[in-house]
Amino acid sequence: MSVRGIRGAVTVEANEASLISEATLTMVREIMSSNDIDPADICSVLITVTQDLDDSFPAQAVRQLPGWELVPLMCALEVPVKGSLERCVRLMVLVNTEKSQKEIHHVYLGGAQALRPDLAKSKV
Ligand SMILES: C=C(O[C@@H]1C=C(C(=O)O)C=C[C@H]1O)C(=O)O
Description:
By secondary structure, the chain is α/β, with parallel strands linked by helices. It has 3 helices and 5 strands, in the order E-H-E-H-E-E-E-H. Strands 3-2-4-1-5 form a 5-stranded mixed beta sheet. Strand 2 (42-49), helix 2 and strand 3 (73-77) form a beta-alpha-beta unit. The longest helix is centred in the first third of the chain and has 19 residues, at 17-35.
C-alpha cells in the first residue's frame, strides 16, 4: 500500500456558490469513480481556487458527500499567475492505494483540460 496523489481541475461558469459546488463535486465524483476509491482510504484533500472564486468554500460541498465526514479537507488560494486560467478549482487528493503511479487517473474537466492536455486525454 502506498500514498498516491491524484490531481483534478475544473473550470466554473461563474462565481456563484451553487456553480462552484456543482463543478467541484463533478470533479470529485469523477476522481473517485475513475480510480475506484473509497473515501475511508483518503489521507487528505487540498483544494485551491483562483482568486475570482470567492462565493463559497468548495470544501463545504465536498464534506456533504456520504462517507466524507472524516476526510481532512483544506482550501487555499491558487498562485495568482498573470494571464492564467480563470475560475478554476483544483484538487490534490492523497490516497492509500495498491495502484502504481502509472495507474492513477488524473481528472481535468471543461476549460481545465487546457492545463494538462497530456493528462486530460490519457486514460492509462
Ligand atoms: C497546470 C496547472 O496549474 C498550476 C501548475 C501546476 C503544474 O505546473 O504542475 C500545478 C498546479 C497549479 O499550481 C494544473 O493545475 O495542473
